[in-house]
Amino acid sequence: MRRTLSENPLTMASTGQTTLVTALFCTLVSGAPTGPVTMVQTQPRIRIVLVGDSTVTDRAGWGLGFKRFTGADVDCINMAAGGRSSRSYIDEGKWKDALALKGDYYLIQFGHNDEPGKGPERETDPKTTYREFMARYVDEARAIGAKPILVTSLTRRSFEGPSIRSSLVPYADAVKALAAEKHVPLIDLHALSIAQAEALGEDAWAAYSPRDVSGAIDRTHLNAKGSALVATPVVAELRRVVPELASHLRLTPISGAEAARRSANAVVAADGSGDHTTVQAAINAAPQNTSIDRPWIIYVKAGPYREVVYVQHEKRFVPLVGEDPARTTITYNLNANMTGADGKPLGTFRTPTVQIDADDFSAENITFENTAGPVGQALALRVDGDRVVFRNSRFLGWQDTILLNRGRHLISDSYIAGHVDFIFGGARAYFERPAIHVLGNGYITAASTPAEQRYGFVFVNGRITSAPGVKTYLGRPWRDYAQVTFLNTAMSDAVRAEGWHNWDKPEREKTTRYQESGSTGPGAAGPRVPWAKPISAADASAVSAFSVLRGTDGWDPDRVPSYESASRATAAPAVGAPPAPAVAPAPQQVIALWPEGVPSAKAVAGEERVVDGRVTNVQIPTVTFHPASRDLANGTAIIIAPGGGYERLAIEKEGSALTARWNALGIAAFVLKYRLSAFGHPAPLQDILRAVRIVRSRASEFGVRPDRIGVFGSSAGGHLAASAAVLFDGEEGRTGAALDTVSARPDFVGLLYPVITMDGPFVHAGSRRNLLGERPSPALVGRLSLETQVGSNVPPVFLVHTGEDASVAVENSLMFYAALRQAHVPVEMHVYEKGPHGFGTAAGLGPTSEWPTRFEEWLRSRGLLNRWIPDR
């Protein structure tokens, strides 16, 4: 029989490594010396097989998120299939195929398609046939020496008021009874997912759900974000019910790119360390029987790949996943003036470095490049397939960089460089948060949209930058009826005032459909040409990736699995083309919090001191305003409270170090210099609440929205930020000033390894002593133990901590998280394994160093990075 993990004597607690055993032995070879020899034993790998319906699959369920929590020594194979029940999965032979994999562990979940009304080939009775089939899974998994784990069905998110009413209860009850009877580990995902859904609330689930064919929110399935969200409690419960797996499951997920590498069907490596040395060879090796649930994943290691790549029509469902968007480059240099094998000029359409004819293709973390330079038409990419997705990629060229010839396409979080007509064609394409960089005088788009097609190219929440001195038009019509829309785009002064060009064909002005709304920056000033069509705010708000791309088949690109890397394409410098110029920082402004006089000011105060980026003896509290550039500003503000145990302020490492990154996202940053131990409580609380009131009362002056003002704190600064979140309306935060009438409630909160409690074994003694004194009253200790003060009016919270923190125990964050959950406050927490206290934005800590990206994703998911145009 196959051994389970706990029975295997070679298994080590550390994962993904080989076991080194040093032994003394005498060789039998005559004359050979005797001595110590290192013998290498390869640690056996663990195979986890997922079995179930569509709510377990990678494309629409929690399977993809689950894979991102598996250790390096785990092979996770997802055999779930959409539309299957406990009966049909067996009858169709899929269970036989899953058993043939000889897994060590099988996670088994059915129920959705077993319900009445699914047809005789699928439906089962929970008290009889369903139980019989589920028992068969258990028995047959055990028969091959594997350990089955039963999982109750993911709930449908059918709300009645704040609660969910589930039709799956009889099936969940049957699974729980079977697990108890047969002593099988159980993950009660049905109960866990109901609790999770109700805690988030109905409205919040739109961000985690795909759309159905009608355009309504799909309340059963999950998009990539939803997959990661639901997988989190699955993994936590699996660690509990199968303890021998705990050390082989991560506390935090790996990147999507790393998950793709582990589950790749083919690996491309220029140095020969993969299955293929060229991308084309991997494409050629992909089978032609792929499907939406059985994609063929190609992982491309970092490196230059100088080749022309063609993806033929039959190669559907082939995700091409790069290791890093700046270092994984497919490049060539064909241009239209070259002579082809037939002795004729190549012309525009035979020059692409990569051409995609396949439907349902996706690419992520890759640079597509044509290095011919400014010599005429030279394509980096041509797309003729349908339902094609590019994420976190770069497209580098000069003239005609991208031809989107036909079909529907999503291009998300990507960098596009060129100078003349460098985004052109007749396709329907939605560009989400693009970074468009103009290399020379010219035109960004040249659309040839068919007359009957409502949308052509739609650009949303992007930015346009340029090389120095460059001037560009937003587009010109390659054909009649060209359609291009720019929404909420930051435009540098490279964009000409008139905006659009008619290709010297005045008759095209009558049919061309150019629209723009919410543009900002010098390039938005206008006046635009009179034949550009206006778009109302209501129509603009209705534009989404789904509404643009859905078609008659209801395609939702949000259902396409995402494999993002830690590096962002829009931040990476371009290869072979000048990078976008850095935005010069806007001038800073130091603002006194108490111009009328600091409360409880000291008569003999001494001097404030700054040593090695740390401030002590603060007497005049201030905020330093770091505005985002006008081109990028989105109306969100964050007040930053550095840490230092209420004795000093790490004003650089945990203050100004964050401002440039957040300014680049369009966020206005305010670094708070607050009073410390010489004053004690409530002085720091008064300072942060006064900062919130100042920013809110002067929001129009600062260019921010009064309902998008957050606080962020690290260590003891985290305690102060959390205090603002839970005690914003307390009397101790008021001083009797007129400004007290302005709300001090933050709109969101970020906390980095925060101090939370002032009591019990997990207290940070120095912070308590400096804030509350040597012998604080029990009432004061309770008041400032913030885990006890959480109410339902606390704003959404983002938490980061590490298990290795030896200064402020991770239990501080865990207690606060539990209290927030209990009060139904939206909260997201990331607990990393590695990292000392005070790491700030330090690199080199593996996943821990990626916390700023996770925070940015959280901000984006809450709409806090959406462009906002103040009233003029």
Question: Would you give an account of this structure?
Answer:
With about 850 residues, the chain is α/β, with parallel strands linked by helices. About 20% of the residues lie in helices and about 20% in strands. The chain contains 19 helices and 42 strands. Strands 12, 13, 15, 16, 18, 19, 21, 22, 24, 26, 28, 29 and 31 form a 13-stranded parallel beta sheet that branches.
Largest sheet: 13 strands, parallel
| Poorly predicted runs of 5 or more residues | 1-42, 572-586
**Radius of gyration of CA atoms, rounded to a whole number:** 29 Å
Annotation, overall tally of beta strands: 42
DSSP helix fraction = 10-25%
Helical/strand content category:
alpha/beta
* Rounded average pLDDT: 89
Q: Helical segment tally? A: 19
Shape: globular
Query: Strand share of the residues?
Result: 15-25%
Task: Please report the distance between the alpha carbons of the first and last residues.
Answer: 75 Å
Quick summary of this structure?
This protein has 19 helices and 42 strands. It is of the alpha/beta class.
